[in-house]
Amino acid sequence: MKLFAIRGGIHPDYRKELSAERPIVALPMPGRLYLPLQQHAGAAALPLVEVGDLVKKGQILARPQGVISAPVHAPTSGRIVDIAEYSAPHPSGLSQPTIVLEPDGKDEWASLPAPLADPFAVPGKEISDRVGAAGIVGLGGAAFPSAVKLTLGTRNKLETLLLNGAECEPYLTCDDRVMREYADEVIDGARIMAHALGTPKIVVAIEQNKPAAVDKMTQAAKAFPNVEVVSVPVQYPMGSEKHLTQAITGLETPARKLTADIGVVVHNVATARAVHHAIRFGRPLLSRVIAVSGAGIAQPKNIDVPLGALVSEVVAFCGGLVGSPKRLVSGGPMMGQPLPSLDVPVVKGTSGILALTEAEVNERPSSPCIRCGTCVTICPCGLVPVEMASFIRKEKLEEAAKSGVMDCVSCGSCSYICPSHIPLVHYFNYAKGRLNALDREKRKNDQTKTLAEARNARLEKLAEAKRVAAAAAAARKAQSETPAEGKAST
Amino acid sequence: MILSTDKSGPFGHAPNSVQKTMTLVLVALLPATLFNIWLFGWPALFMFLFSIASCVGIEALCMWGQGKPIQPVIADGSAVLTGWLMAMSLPPWAPWWIPLIGAICAIWLAKHLYGGLGQNVFNPAMIARVALLVSFPVQMTLFVAPKPLFSDGAPGFAESLSIFFGLVDMDTLSSASAMGFIKTELSRGITVSASMAQTPNLMDTLFGFHPGSFGETSQVLVLAGGLFLLARRVISWHIPVAVLGTILVLGTLFNAINPDRFASGLFHLTAGASMLGAFFIATDYVTSPVSKQGQIVFGIGVGFLTWVIRTFAGYPEGMAFAVLLMNSVTPIIDSKIRPRTFGRTRKGEPLEMTRKP
User: In chain A, what are the domains?
Assistant: First the structure.
């Protein structure tokens, strides 16, 4: 297949060898599971259970709220022991509403929805509804409800389902292992998704540094002429949705649009496997495969973790920490989030837990920018990070926006490569947050203004109508009185 | 364990630093420098070392004056590099006060008054060179014929110290650079084609056995250093190729039109500061554009102005002026010439929706 070049990018130290050859193992069921009501992009789920309830494996615990939301299910059978605020797996360390489940060790299944006999015979809506009910979200890390992305076919004419197995983040090996060990499940899930989307073609894109996964997936795809497995160059951030789309199709997604607008929908490989489970067996999303790695982890592993297991349990299962790591990261080192503690749960969007040592992180105080222009050369979005950063440093957010900060995908390439160790992405994330907040405020003000104006107009109209009515009444009165007067005068 | 969450990712960094970059540039300058120390002897070595010492010293004074820590600023290596490059653009036997005044201009006026590393608009070493050239035209054009270390007629250590301290009358020793010679001859009514016959032959020019500034004489060694920087990706080809290409094209074109008035492209390419300027001066990160497209425009501008000044202006060499003039438009180049944003047109509008036919 002809591939297309993407702009810029970097070649970080991948260090995937730490965990790439470790087969997926299941985490022994922990003593407690902490299930946040918000493990996805969108609105938090609403709890359906109460403290003391006994639940079965796969039973729904919280229902979605609104279109962009996802339910939460019980990863095993047991008792609900608490519904309260617990630390979220987020850098802020703030707490969020969480259902706490104490497993009973029986691992008893609830009655699950009957598997679809032939998923290719039902309408796409049925598939996406079932995927939504299974609580499946994008397992690449963004955790966007997958069902929403499976209905894109009703709005756009789609050509390609692009299955993202690039796994361009250093250290992470979970997608690699899933593709190697469950290639058939991934391909089956992808075919079901393609049916839901109405895309004739499926392309599985895998970076060349995962030859075993490419082999296994090619084997699994052999029987299906519409499925193509493509190995793409090792170039961070190849796994970025819009960049992968460009590499495979040559099409550049216009700013502020979705890849679906140009006929491509991108889903992660592990998401496809979850869809396979949901449709073929009626099983909701109860666990996920994560990579636990970094020089700060005694025995790096790929682990199938029940959702809600604490990071501390996962780390203990890997032999604990070595020394005192400098950073604990959820996700990959490039775009992952720093974790404030080990006492936070693994959630649907957790693709890895990394304990990184001082040497791996290689943090240094930043020195003045020497305008070397490397950030400009490597920016995969064609931005000028050096300029945006200098605007943001002076709090000139409007200029930064004009300079394109909202088009930044926060891939971190510029920060990684900057010889002066300037935390460029940190600035951009700050600016994006501020600009979004300002935008919300502006919209709110506008809305208030519009409402106030409408109210004033309404009141004025009312007053006007009153005046007219009063005038009319006065006129009528005058008229009725005039003849009376006339009468009187006569 | 204390886990910090004070910074967003990435949690990892390329093994590069400002210091490493500066060191690579210094390594690239080393062959040409060592050769010229040998070629011009002790006085050149004294001038070279004093030039670096002055720049580092002035930088330390600047930091001390601002009450800021001195060590980390010196440690970045930028003052050493400025001093080194300045020395390379000075006559090899310049007396001590030339590099000292140069260092004041370069480090204090051109760098720290603008806010220090990364903030300066103009290339500090070239500010120094131009300020010195305009202020002391005689001393700045006193070039000596090569007198290799330990060869007959080369000054000894003591005599060299006298030269360094300006106690020796240099007029008797001086010799014109090739470009200076052509310019003088032209003003006397002698055609360029006639005077070019008397300049050092191409081999001597290439290898450096001719009078000239301290760092510029050996085109081959300067070029080797430049190629090393390219190979180590400290610089990219855009600026050097644009500078040298423009000079070569203009020189060749006009020489073909009137060889009696215009020196050849090859002469322009191998004479004076062409190589040093194209690879080491114009490529200065701080004062050149950040985008590759901008760098090409910048390089063409430097090449064009260099040729114009060399050919029509009063000074035989124009590289320093050309670089400074283009430095002044770098902010404009950076704001006008930028990469195209993903998903947008050059004007910044979202792309039209196009789908495969």
Answer: 16-290 (3.40.50.11540), 364-490 (1.10.1060)
